[in-house]
Write a structure and sequence with these properties.
Length: 405
């Protein structure tokens, strides 16, 4: 073996040209054919290496490299065939053939193993069809996107249109609100002036009627005395009506600036003091829970409680009036409740009773202004007032006002 490699390049055999009897034609044919084959074989591996380098995404690219080595080895055997025409270096020639065999056998084996995988690869026709499908899907998606863009633009246009219209109506509404507020102010001023000026003559009518009754009562018969009583009653009622109207017309928007802060316990006590006579007359039991500080003007809160407690006493049932006032925190507001055990209200009238001059029970004295006044006060503070009741089951009036900031 050592001897083989030592003499690897020794030309100690007969050159191959001798077998061809040095016939120039035959030698030329061999040389030309082997040279061209070798040249072609040497070109192929470089082309393959170039291809693999440029197309790193190629599947089985390692196979191209193996193929390149194999072809390079084949090319070298042909080059050796030219060399051995003149030089008897058959050891070197054998070694080159052995290397070619060693590279060709694994290439062939691997190529055979590769065939099923290569067969499974999509054919150019399949790829073309897939591509066509993809292209048509892309076109469809583009169309859909275009449609979505169009719908979006249409929606945006409509939203913009609506917003503009809303802004327009909002401005109209604000204008209307200003107008209503101005007319309300005018109306309040008018109501204030009218009720204030009318109260005085009415007071005088009531006063003189009383005087006539006292001084000349014995000179009238029963019928005339009854007339006088009716005049006095009507004058008193009108006076009450006017004073309630006056109170109603004087409810104004809370002033800007420091928001009010009122202790509801104080307002409750004041309301009870104002209702003292009626509470005593009816032997009413009035209790309360712990009441909060609220963002409502003191006189407004007192009026609210006075009206609601006063009504609860007035619209009593046969049993002793029991009234409970409480408040419960609801987010940034307080919900007050005034619960009684009185005659109750048919739910069908639960909204109507908050209207001006709306009364359900004309047998009791009243003007029908109290609840309208409560409604107006609560409205001023962005609150709400309502009643929960059933006939003969008592009533619970509830109202919501802001808590003291
Ligand atoms: P009024 O001066 O008649 O009391 P309000 O506006 O205070 O006027 O009340 C309107 C009507 O609502 C009353 O006439 C009465 O019929 C009814 N009402 C109010 N509060 C109660 C109550 N607590 N229980 C039963 N009915 C009530």
């Amino acid at each position: 073996m050592l001897e083989f490699f030592r003499r690897l390049f020794a030309s100690d055999f007969m050159p191959h040209g001798m077998c061809l009897l040095w016939q120039p034609g035959l030698i030329g044919l061999h040389v030309a054919s082997d040279a061209l084959t070798a040249l072609a074989y040497f070109c192929i591996p470089f082309t393959l290496v170039y291809l693999v380098k440029r197309r790193r995404d190629l599947v089985f690219n390692w196979m191209f490299v193996l193929f390149g080595v194999f072809i390079l080895a084949c090319g070298t055997t042909h080059a050796m065939s030219i060399w051995t025409l003149w030089h008897g270096t058959y050891r070197l020639d054998g070694l080159v053939k052995a290397i070619t065999a060693l590279s060709s056998v694994p290439t062939a084996v691997l190529l055979i193993q590769l065939v099923p995988q290569a067969v499974a690869l999509p054919s150019p026709e399949q790829l073309r069809r897939m591509n066509e499908r993809l292209q048509s899907e892309i076109a469809e998606r583009r169309l859909a996107e275009e449609e979505i863009r169009r719908i979006n633009a249409e929606l945006e246009r409509r939203v913009a249109e609506r917003t503009a219209k809303l802004e327009e109506s909002n401005q109209e509404l604000q204008k209307l609100n200003r107008l209503i507020r101005r007319s309300n102010d005018d109306l309040s001023q008018y109501a204030y002036a009218a009720s204030h000026d009318l109260r005085e003559p009415l007071r005088i009518v009531a006063l003189y009627t009383e005087l006539v009754e006292r001084r000349c009562g014995d000179r009238f018969d029963d019928e005339c005395a009854g007339f006088l009583r009716n005049i006095r009653g009507a004058a008193r009622h009108s006076e009450r009506l006017l004073s309630d109207l006056l109170a109603y017309s004087q409810i104004s928007d809370p002033e800007d600036g420091q928001p009010p802060r009122t202790d509801a316990n104080g307002s409750f006590a004041e309301a009870l003091a104002a209702l003292e006579v009626s509470i005593k007359e009816n032997d009413a039991l009035i209790t309360r829970g712990e009441l909060p500080h609220v963002g409502v003007h003191e006189s407004h809160l007192r009026q609210l409680l006075q009206n609601l407690i006063g009504n609860a006493v007035k619209y009593r049932s046969g049993s002793r009036p029991e009234i409970h006032v409480a408040a419960e925190r609801k987010d940034s507001t307080w919900e007050f409740s005034v619960r009684d055990n009185g005659i109750g209200i048919d739910p069908q009238y639960s909204t109507k009773i908050f209207g001006l001059f709306k009364r359900l029970d004309p047998s009791k004295p009243g003007t029908g202004i109290g609840l309208a006044l409560c409604q107006r006060i609560v409205d001023q503070y962005g609150g709400r007032i309502w009643v929960e009741s059933e006939p003969d089951k008592g009533a619970t009036f509830r109202f919501i006002v802001p808590h003291a900031g």
